[in-house]
Amino acid sequence: MANKVKCGMIIDLHRCVGCGGCDLACKSENNTPVGIDWASHKVETYGVFPDTKYEHVPTLCNHCEDAPCIRVCPTKAMHKDNKGMVIHDPSICIGCKSCILADPYKVISYNQQSAFLDYVTDDSRIVKGGTFSKKELSEASNAPFPNFNVDRGADGYEAVRKKGTVEKCSFCDHRVADGLAPACVVACPADARIFGDLNDPKSEIVKLLKTYKPTVLLPEKGTKPKVFYIRSFSNKS
Amino acid sequence: MSMNRRKFLKVSATTTAAAVTVPTMLVPKDADAKIGELAYEGEAGKWVASTCQGCTSWCSIQGLVVGDRVVKVRGNPNSPSGGRICPRPHLALQQVYDPDRVKTPLKRTNPKKGKGIDPKFVPISWEEAADTIADKILELINAGESHKFLLMRGRYTYMREIIYGTFPKLIGSPNNISHSAICAEAEKFGRYYTEGFWDYADADLENTRYLLAWGWDGIASNRQTPWFIKQMGNIKDRARVTAIDPRLSATAAKADRWLPVIPGTDSALQVAIAHVILSEGKWNKLFVGDFADGQNAFIPGQEVQAETTFNEKHTYGVVKWWNLELKDRTPEWAEDICGIKADEIRAVAREFAEAGSKAISWVSPGASMQVRGAYASLAGHALNGLVGSVDAAGGTLQKLSPPVNKSPDYKPYLDPKLTANTKKPKIDQRGTKNFPSLKKKSGGGVVTSRVAQALLDEDPYDIKVAIGYWNNFVYSSNGTQQWEEAMAKLPFFAHITTNLAEMSMFADIVLPAKMSMFERWGYLKSKQNLHGYATLNVPMIKPYADAKTDETEVPFLIAQSLAKKGFDGPLRYYQENFKDPETGKVPQNSEEFDLFALKYYLEPLWTGKAASKGDNITSWKELVEKGIWKTKRFTPGKKIDNFKTATHKFEFYSETLKKAMGAHAEKHNMSMDEAFEAANYTCRGDLSFVPHYEPPVRHGDEKEYPFIFAEHRSRLNREGRSQNTPWYYGMLDVDPGGVADKDVTKINPLDGKKLGLKEGDRIRITSPQGSIESEVHLWEGTRPGVVIKCFGQGHWAYGRVGSEVFGSKPRGANNNDILHYDWERLSGSNPRHGGLSRVKIEKI
């Protein structure tokens, strides 16, 4: 193979409408509990009425070339895979949270408790005999929770992460390994996300990076993110 | 990781061999958008098509079914919107698997009814439930008062034909009352009385050069949401977008211009734009025509003289419009009324007109669902007539419709003794003196929210038995107080619902409904991207509840019970007319009926009969697999001079409205002026038939209630049904001005300062109608003087997530508690917009 694959993503803010479809698709793909979002967003309103501007910036792990979270991980649970993605292995994570402290983007979450524990323990219902409990649904569906995506649990990775470990966006490595784009890319109704190989000069992502001047979040941190932003969300002057 | 052979074949079949190891695919439509079985990490999953009804875009979607569970959703690649979905379908996963869904039929054991009163529901069997309802219906029939049965429909599929279209008639009642007037009937009014089209518009987004969006937040809420989202970037590359909205909406945030209009004054802005277009000679002369001498006689402040000839082409009444209304409607006149600077009005009018037939003026509920919104609906749409973008490439379009079978004639199955009762006036008072509801004719449309008052007043009579399905009027209509009182008074009510909603808390019987996106059969007709289509609701999973399809199975079960008790008309109608078109089998149970009835209606679409009009699909199996049948692409230009108006032209002076209102006035022995007065409009004489400015109605004295209240939709609202899903709350900041996990009221910081309010303060908002509590969000996207709150939260019943205490204490607040109980009477609509309620704000 000529070049090693290096995965990256572009978010075209001109196309993005700030709908949050990416965030929700990520939740159903990756079984993240309420309070833990691998894909998220920052919003900001500026200016004074009526010259008001609004910006929405989708966020996720930047899969940095020089990732501070990898540097500080004592067990190498946080590591880089052969496609340049920053991947976490919960089986050797000791939950020390060093990565969370080191990460300038605040995209790593800690499982304070077992995710979806309420589906094991909560047997309350609003009308006795008339509605369900969470526990009952979990038992009926024979799954940790009914819309549980078992396929997230690829290659030894836990489909639902354990208490005391961290978790974050993996660029949907389980999908990419199958030749599929990450869930947020497929779900974007605006075609605002472009995922691809930064080492392939013919890839769409490389072409777009040449066409538009990309920006990254917190460039001053020197982390060399592989999530790039092009154009702007609002074009009001 | 290892890759099994089956998966390798699947992947290599759709991408290059290199793509298996090198991820260069990355264009999702190639990589992922396949139909049918998908080998997936050793699990076989199947993408099954269905329809999302989180708004009325009615997008064809697919759910990934693994075993007996649905785990993910995406757009249907066969859909005309490019196989995309907005955020709403994702939330449906938590909706279908909501633990608070009704599990089994329930019976009320507490006879006392009222808000916050525990109905003390206990489980019963379907048989007992159906027998109870059948007994109530038979009591009415035997007493000769079958018309005192009421069917209330909320959201629906086109299988509504069974429960709404024919069931009430078969039991001798005229009362099938839809929710439509809560939704957007006033929007349709403008299109109908200019171009004879009572519907939502389509638009040629791929070719448009200007989008003038009247209260329209198309990338967030209704309609064609994913198609607009997909196109927005392209539109911004080649066209200009101007959003008119008191709130910096999602669309306004992406627009080139934001015009933060004062609520309810859209018509002032519209006629000022029209004034500029005419006075500056910028109208489309090919479409509208021109003065015979080529000299522009549209001179501000002056009438066009009778002797001046205007050769009008495809429109009707442009000179009358000018003389009756537009001549004095200068931008300077409009500035103080609508709060938009005259210079900006002029600039927008020029930009819009310069885009000519590729300029779209799109009226939405925001600009029309107002007490006097019918004329904003007319004026906004009439702008398309001035620039000739009606039925034009790059302009606003009508639609093509999938040909489906009509309902079989019910009359042979109707007991002749009941015929007279089916012709009694409907309970919603449509077509009465004060409620013209002119959907094509006097009383042609529904006045949904008037039903509450009619129930209270027993006018025109007392309703004794009611069924409601997929509706929650107690929550979703202006005048929650009136609805609560009316529902408490209703002697017998059965509610068919997925969740115990506010409406259910007044029910005697609650029947669990299958969830529309994943559990039942059905179909919808809609349009996106110049294609009409029929999209299926497909039961891809079995419900955990003992649920039935509201529109088909429930009436079938009641019909079976009625037949058992000797009244067999409805059951014979169902069994004799809805045999399986493939096998001729007679439906023996409700599930067979559910499927056979759908196959009956769609038969032209899956037998190849409709192939000349669109997709050629030749088997039922193929239709279910594809999930959608599409018409050919709409061709613009064929409607011109062939509009279904009185003159066949695009009417600036609406002879069509004159005819309809004339008939209404005559029916009630009124003059035309009296008729408009009774409908709460200020116009008199010929002015009534041209688009014109109507001063907004505001309830509440300005001194006591200094602020105008405005509301909007969240892009995460699945109408009112996503508020029991945890995912909804965490993401509410995807709405501009929204705050995650909260139900805030957006107040301009200047007003906040005046009131001494800080971010996060708790406030009470009071209108003459009622009071709610909320939390302050100081936000520059709000017009000073206007306070804005999203609709959707504040359920006191729906489930544990949506309420703070189920059955009594809401989470957030319901805007309908303070929106005044009033109507847009020409269309029968609920005027939730236009700032009809003034409010005062107190810190608590």
Please explain how this structure is put together:
The complex is a heterodimer of chains A (237) and B (844). By secondary structure, chain A is an alpha+beta fold. Chain A has 2 domains: 7-115 and 161-230, Alpha-Beta Plaits; 119-154, no CATH class. Chain A is 21% helix and 18% strand. In chain A, strand 2 (40-48) and strand 3 form a beta hairpin. The termini of chain B are far apart. In chain B, the strands form 9 sheets. Chain B has a 7-stranded mixed β-sheet. A 6-stranded mixed β-barrel of chain B has the order 25-29-26-28-27-32. In chain B, helix 11 (266-279) packs parallel to helix 16, helix 21 packs across helix 22 and helix 23 (590-606) packs across helix 24. At the A-B interface, helix 1, strand 2, strand 3, helix 5 and helix 7 of A face helix 1, helix 2, strand 4, helix 4 and strand 6 of B.
Q: What separation lies between the terminal Cα atoms of chain B?
A: 60 Å
* Principal-axis shape of chain B: globular
Mean pLDDT of chain A: 94
What fold name stands as the CATH topology of the largest domain in chain A? Alpha-Beta Plaits
Cα-based radius of gyration of chain A, to the nearest Å: 19 Å
Number of strands of chain B: 32
Largest sheet of chain B: 7 strands, mixed
Notable features of this structure?
heterodimer; A: 237 residues; alpha+beta; Alpha-Beta Plaits; 2 domains; 3-stranded mixed sheet; two-stranded antiparallel sheet; 8 helices; 18% strand; globular; B: 844 residues; alpha/beta; 7-stranded mixed sheet; 6-stranded mixed barrel; 28 helices; 30% helix; 17% strand
